[in-house]
Amino acid sequence: MHFRFVVDGAAYSRHKAAFKKMLADHRLAWRGNMTEFVWVGPKERVRAEYERDEARGITIKAMLIWEGKAKTPLLNELKTWVFAVGGKAEEQKATKVDKAAVKERVDREMEFWDRVHKPDVDALRADGRPEEWIEKDLKEWKKARDARRKELSAAQ
Fold it and tell me: Could you tell me the fold of the domain covering 2-92?
């Protein structure tokens, strides 16, 4: 589920401290860089896109995109904040193409993750590792793999 909020640049600039405090209060952590603005939490994330006038050094428009699987208290607070500063909101329905792209991305990430983290059973046996330890390693890997897949799916 996606909600897109559009806020006038001047209004966003005046109230961005409240926006960032709201994100911190809901335990979203900064995961972006100077070209991609992203705050990520366990169940949701917020991306920001800014339209700027570099010559004058001002923000013309701020677009905030909330993404999550279900509506959360942060989403409600974000809606309230956006309307209070004079912005507008719209819900964006996920399409099947989006879901297919997310699944493809997650599968690609998991394939790489498996190459790095999956225990090499044959090598462990050749090194003389006890069979019960190998089974324990495989169970731990499967548990970590499931957690990683859920994490990647939630972030998409």
Answer: TATA-Binding Protein (3.30.310)
Average pLDDT, the chain: 88
Q: Hey, what are 54's tokens?
A: 């570099």
**Domain span(s) for CATH 3.30.310.180 in the chain:** 2-92
Count the residues in the chain: 156
Q: Identify the pLDDT of residue 86.
A: 92
Q: What amino acid is encoded at 117 in this protein? A: H
Among 31-45, 90-104, 132-146, the range scoring the smallest mean pLDDT is 90-104
How far is residue 140's CA from residue 28's CA, in Å, rounded to a whole number? 28
Indicate the DSSP class of residue 95: P
Secondary structure in 3-state letters for 46-112:
EEEEEEEECCCCEEEEEEEEEEECCCCHHHHHHHHHHHHCCCEEEEECCCHHHHHHHHHHHHHHHHH
Residues 78 and 20: beta-carbon distance below 8 Å:
no
pTM score = 0.58
Collapse the DSSP code of 12 into the 3-class scheme (helix H, G, I; strand E, B; otherwise coil) and give the result: helix
* Six token digits for residue 142: 């499967």
Query: Are the beta carbons of 50 and 61 closer than 8 angstroms?
Result: yes
